[in-house]
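Worked Example 4.2. Consider the chain below.
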Amino acid sequence: MKVLLIHAKEFYYRARSKAISDAEPLSEAPESLHLSNALIAFTTVEDVDAQAPKDVAKKAALDIDELARQLKVENVLIYPYAHLSSKLAPPHIALNVLKLLQDELEAISERAYNVYRAPFGWYKEFKVHCLGHPLSELSRSYTPQAIVRPKVEKRYYILTPEGEVYDPQDYLSRASKELQILIEKEALGKEIGEVKNPVNEVCSKFGFEWEPMGDYGHMRYEPHASLIVDAVSEYAWALARSLGIPVLKVRGTNMFDLASKPVYEHAQLYGDRLYELWTDRKHLVLRYAACHQQFAMLKDYVLSYKDLPLGMFEVADSYRLEQSGEVTLCFRLRRFYMPDLHILTKDIEEAVKISEKLQEVIHREARKLGQEYYAVYNVTEDFWEQKRDMLLELIRRDGKPALITLYPAGIYYWVVNVEYHIIDSAGRPREIATYQFDIGNAKRFGIKYVDENNEERYPVIIHTALIGSVERYIYMVFDSAIKAEKRGETPYIPTWLSPIQVRLIPLNPKENEQMSYAEKVADLLEENMIRVDIDDRDISLGRRIRDAAREWIPYIAVIGERELKTGTLNVTIRKTNDRITMKPEDLVQKLLEEIKGYPRAQPTLPRYVSKRPSLVYLEKKIAV
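Applying the procedure from the previous section yields the following structure tokens:
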């Protein structure tokens, strides 16, 4: 808090017009005032004052009271003044602190002087006659004592699909190996320690790299990585549309004003890993998911119970200020893409019903990659006590015991927050997909619907990322490849995600007929939206085949004199290591069947390998 103190022979003000939309009603503070022999406290409440508003108000009150008694003033006026700092508190916080300051002064003044407060959030005209003595113009600054957040007390249980409840330590001996790892890490606090993670190498291999000229935890996406991100983003949207409910796709800004009360309150509930910045006098938070944008839109919709359930989707660039030592390539990032889906439901019962489809999709998509999810259910104590039957229904659908983490009621906006973890190739739990039941933000943001009785109600909002963040899903894909290699199989990624799906290699690229045939085949593949390139470099066939294998290209087709004569291709299939002869039309049909139902992202590199610059990330010597 910053305060400019003026000892005035006379002071007059009058409120003229609102400076902000949520200005204080004039019924709560005098619209105009004319004072004599007054101490005017021009007061700016800063963002840091929100940490301990009572503490900073008390400090300022004690100081102002001492000066008022010394000057023997008849009146003290607290005058909101936003011009002493560039880092202002949100309006609702500032008004609260000003009211606390008034209360503190009234409590300690012992009627030695009158205490007034000018209305907050108004443009005001004022006239001041400063007395001009050594104590008539003073400035003060007050910093609140930092408050240590109380540690949230959590309790842990294991809940089985049969409804049995166990202490995590007691359940270890009967848990699967993967569930043991999750229990030990999450409930028992066992540290796994430093383990080399081979997934990082595969991320780097495909062009997911740290940006050394940016902040910690910010990646750059080379051409292969860029294509994979595009494909996964589109797939996340396709999955959202497949749920059988209306879903709206939107796009929005990535920063929101903490002066907005719902934004501020949501940020406070979220925690301490906020990416914040100041522009002019605005204190902004970079979004950590799509919540703010989607809620800001939904509050303006006129909704009926007939419109629900209703989904809203965005692949949101999201920001979380993870500790620099915690960031992990493709997994724990400060900036990432979140395919965020919010579903408005009439009540908690409908939310539980809708979540059945979410769980089905979540588990199916992990199993397509050969992965299994193990769930952590973060649950509030009131939901645990009053809605155990609903919780049990959710766990039965998962089909395996879940780790329950119990939180005190009312400290977050959700009552159930489910984290789905895989156990990766390095033996660590890794949260990928998630969903949660939000009972607080509809009221906070003013999102309403009209029920069957024509009464306004607040919906329950499901938050979900069906495949996790884009980067975490990609992490799971690469982890599946590592696990396949550990089983003695050739590591691969699904064909629909492969940056290049077919590479054509003319045996002699200087031979016009071979190149002409390769171009004809490439045209056919591209007509069917299959990503193809031609390795036309004048180097050995063995080197070109090795380079294609190093890029994990699913289909490598060699073209020589025999293929020209027979109108065929000599195709090596990476996943099975089969080498077969097939016609171009047959290759197209095989690929179309394999990528059916998946997005068709556009290529991110030129058709001819010789036309590409030296791609550093493809030149790296990667063990896998």
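The CA atoms of residues 237 and 313 lie 7 Å apart. Residues 348-368 form the longest helix (21 residues). Compare this with Example 4.1 before moving on.
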